Amino acid sequence: MERGSGACLQIMDPDVIPLYKAVNECKIGSESSQTDNKTRLDGNDHAFANLFDFGPKFIRMRLTDGVRELQTVIRDKATPRNDFIFYADRLIRLVVEEGLNKLPYRKCDVVTPTGQVYEGLRYEKGNCGVSIVRSGEAMEQGLRDCCRSIRIGKILIQSDDDTHDARVVYANLPKDINQRKVLLMYPIMCTGNTVAKALEILEMNNVKEENIILLNLFCTPQSANQLVTKFPGMTILTTEVHPVAPSHFGQKYFGTD
Amino acid sequence: MTDSVFDFKAQPRANSASDSGGSEDGGEGDSDQVTPLTVCTDLPNNMSPNPPRTPKSPKIATSLKKRHRAPGSHKPEGTRVLHTHGRRTLYTAGRPPWYNKEGQLKNAFVIGLCGGSASGKTTVARKIIEYLDVPWVSLVSMDSFYKVLNEEQHKRAEANEYDFDHPDAFDFDLVISTLKRLKEGKSVNVPIYNFATHSREKQMKTIYGANVIIFEGIMAFANPELLKVMDMKVFVDTDSDICLARRLRRDIAERGRDPQGVLKQYMKFVKPSFEHYIEPYMQSADIIVPKGGENDVAVNLIVLHVHNQLQARGFKLRNKQAQASHNGQPMPDTLHILEKTPQVNGMHSFIRDKNTSRDEFIFYSKRLMRLLFEHALSMLPFRETVVETPQGIFYDGRRTSVKRIVGVSILRAGETMEQALCEVCKDVSIGKILIQTNMDTGEPELHYIRLPKDIKDQYIFLLDATVATGAAAMMAIRVLLDHDVPEEKIFLCSLLMAESGVQTVAYAFPKVKIVTTAVDKDVNDKFHILPGIGNFGDRYFGTDFAE
Q1: Which of A65, A170, B144, B286 qualifies as a FRET site for B257, CA 20 to 30 Å off?
Q2: Are A205 and A178 in contact (CB under 8 A)?
Q3: Which of B457, B451, B456, B439 shows the shortest CA–CA distance to B410?
Q4: How far apart are CA B137 and CA A137, in angstroms?
Q5: Does A101 lie at the interface with B, CB-CB under 8 angstroms?
């Protein structure tokens, strides 16, 4: 388990930007003009979320009550840390399971112990995961729990405190990554700059956009917009599009708040 | 031996009444034993017509064509043995279905046993149990239902001045409600009466419905409503001189009381009471047994009658269930199948493939189970809630209003799902039910049950890896209902089900939610699902190497 390994590097979560900025930048979507300091927004307001059409490659997970509960617990300030990790891991697992559906497979019939034929399928080999340090590492275990021996690369990106420009500090990827499908893991997106930077690295390694699936938990409309515009070939999977992202995720998950 | 489910010989468990599970922890849901349960309070003081030293359970089987163990018994006993059938080893002598194929309860056969004090009621009851030779006989003694005495009455009792031989000394309302529930096959809590303090103990003894219930007591016939509950009324008539002689010997020799006190009580209460409240009710009896327990002819007649009654009720449940034609009927609304995504299909391909290694079989079935439980959890009731976030905004979310969930696994295959449930559900309590198929009759039999307390207020996830005919699931649901769990709070969670099983369960229990990852078409004559998955438990636990 990689949990906490990033903490010793003392890096900032690069995608974290001040709240007022996030809200202001997202005013485009919020029809209801809230002037209160404490804005009240419903992240699962479909009318709101549907204002944005991010195209067919942008997939929102089906919102069951169960998923909404997981989101609520993660959002709640009062959630104790062990609950937070438990519920976050559950949500991550669901996103990973959903993401694996996007990988290629072929038909494959099998014979059951009763001697009958079951029309099944088999997944192709040649996939890998790439996590963006540090919060992306929180999702590695979820992927491991589904694909036991999958290769996982890492990219560390830091952002400049003033300009929010993202800068690559470290990247270590499987050598044949250009022949693989890539599950890119990053749970929270505010601006989308970090993921955009990571995609540049992947493209430098000759990974095609079409072979990338981004696994994400929470994102802002702004970040979604940036990514689908810049990388139209990439598949994005998320559970929620909301003007305010739960930017405390990495801190609380790794216990560095 | 093959035609009747009642042919099993249970093994003896002497004094089972006083040392079985319930009395340690008390409360309901503690009945972990599914052996024939009996009740008899240990009477430290006077007034006991029956010293509880006799074996109340069905007597030993002399024929060991079938061999038995007492499931859930705390004591290792020499007779706990196995029944081997082909390559499989099974435990038998469990409880056969006590409901019909619609899941509705069959009434138990209630025998009322009345007679004067020390007339030999207990001996007759014991002989009936012994000769009946069926599992699931409960003996309920009226002594458990004495009223709680206040201080003044208590003092009078100490001085042999309180009349225990009067109908008013008994709590008839409680007797009637208890017997009615027992007759319906539901679980009951019988008070344990303390004769030293003349009050009820905090703990209750849990009895679970039986095929035959024997209710005995001096005032057993004194209430007309009580009489209606009984299917057969037996009066034990013994000469009053003999009764007195026995009583004297018992109270003096075994309970260390002085002859004066015994005689005083006899003259003042026991004798008049017999004449007023017991003897007149002899006319209500169907059978009068003279000479009490020595009368083998009478006992044999009673047993013959009960056997005929039981035979008339028993039938081959599972075959009926398997054959029950639900063909062409649409799947019920209560069925919720996990969406067949490529991943779900891929995992099914692994676990259904007969060549899959056990390592992969376990890995992929666990992944599938986790998705199953996430799906089931999202079907609980939810409510809107607003939470404050660290970002300073309020967030409109949802939380489930269910505080506690209890997982109840049907052994053995159901146990494989416990871990996955624990992974998605914090602080879940786990109960267990062992149901096995009797290889001779093909009927499911209940062998062991251990449920958390207060189960009736919780949501229940009933776990079984596969559901073919639905016989085991149905029995498990029946057990839960008998413990007062509302039907709509039961979720039957299963990896794979057959259509017939879904229909059977849904037809019998239309409010039970059925959650599964796939539904197959057929069931073969060995009750395996087709194309199916094989024997899930064997593949998971690795006990199929002989194949």
Answers
A1: B144
A2: yes
A3: B451
A4: 61
A5: yes
Residues of A in contact with B385 (CB under 8 A): 72
Using a CB–CB cutoff of 8 Å, tell me whether B426 touches chain A: yes
pLDDT in 10s for each residue of chain B, 547 residues: 333 333 333 333 333 333 333 333 333 333 344 443 333 333 333 333 333 333 333 333 333 333 333 333 333 332 333 333 344 333 335 666 777 777 777 778 899 999 888 888 888 888 888 787 666 677 888 888 888 888 888 888 777 778 888 888 888 899 999 888 888 877 788 888 877 777 888 777 777 667 788 898 888 888 888 888 898 999 988 888 888 888 888 878 776 777 888 888 888 888 888 888 888 888 888 888 888 778 888 888 888 888 888 777 654 555 555 555 566 678 888 999 999 999 999 999 999 999 999 999 999 999 999 999 999 999 999 999 999 999 889 999 999 988 889 999 998 889 999 999 999 998 899 999 998 877 766 678 888 888 888 888 899 999 999 998 888 898 899 889 888 899 999 999 999 999 988 988 888 889 999 999 999 988 887 778 889 898 898 889 988 754 4
Q: Does A4 map to a domain?
A: no
Chains A, B: CB contacts under 8 A, how many?
A: 152
Domain interval for residue A226:
12-30+44-254
Phi, psi (rounded to 5 degrees) for B243:
-55, -45
CB B30 within 8 Å of CB B453: yes
Q: Which structure tokens are listed for B53?
A: 């030293």
Pairing mode, if any, of strands B513-520 and B490-498?
A: parallel
- Domain-embedded: residue A61: yes
Nearest CB to A66 within list B377, B387, B528:
B377
Q: Chain B within 8 Å of A42 (Cβ-Cβ)?
A: yes
Structural domain includes residue A129: yes
What DSSP designation does B33 have?
B
Question: For the domain that residue A106 is a member of, what is the CATH number?
Answer: 3.40.50.2020
Q: Is A164 left (phi over 0), alpha (psi -120 to 50) or beta?
A: left
CB contact A144 to B (< 8 Å):
no
Whether the CB-CB separation of B222 and B213 falls below 8 Å is answered with no
Residues of chain B in contact with residue A145, where contact means CB-CB under 8 angstroms, are 367
Residues from chain B that touch A146, judged by Cβ atoms under 8 A, are 367
> Does A75 contact chain B (CB < 8 Å)?
yes
Selection from B179, B141, B534, B137 nearest residue B361 by Cα: B534
SS3 B438: coil
Q: How many domains does chain A have?
A: 1
DSSP B76-130: --TT---EEETTEEE----BPP-B-TTSPBPPPEEEEEEE-TTSSHHHHHHHHHH
Domain annotation for chain B: domains and CATH numbers: 16-314 (3.40.50.300), 319-541 (3.40.50.2020)
CB-CB: which of B342, B354, B370 is closest to A113? B354
- Scanning every residue of chain B, which has its alpha carbon at the shortest distance from the alpha carbon of A74? B389
Q: Which residue of A has its CA nearest to B341?
A: A101
Strand A127-133 and strand A181-185: pairing?
parallel
Interface test with A, best of B345, B374, B393 (most A CBs within 10 A): B393
